[in-house]
Amino acid sequence: MWRNRSGAPRDAAVAAEFVVVADSSGRATVENLERAEVIGPEEKAGPRVASTGLYIGDEVEVIGRFKPERFGSDPDPTRLVYGSLGGDGNLYVRVHSRPNPPAPAETPVRAAAEALSSPPSPAQAPQETTE
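The structure corresponding to this sequence follows.
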């Protein structure tokens, strides 16, 4: 839901428009995540390429200005949205723990690049026929 190359400025990040964080006291939306200062584990994608990411399921600490806006009427407090964080663009997120490390990203671009760089196997090579 958020990714940036290591050492890149905040405005180079790519993120979801908004996310919902939750704990035992309730839920809050997080806005402007793409402008957040994020501290998390570095992920190596190659010898000279590294990035940092936030994933669904990460346990995080979020620091930002809270704007109260209560949504919902459920008696269970964990199901209520109490407000939003980060509306002013000042947002800090730190990853405390990650339950399962994310799988290496297999993107269509990466798969196509690997397919072009490796010669086709005999089963995949086009067969010439003479008639």
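The chain has a mean pLDDT of 80.
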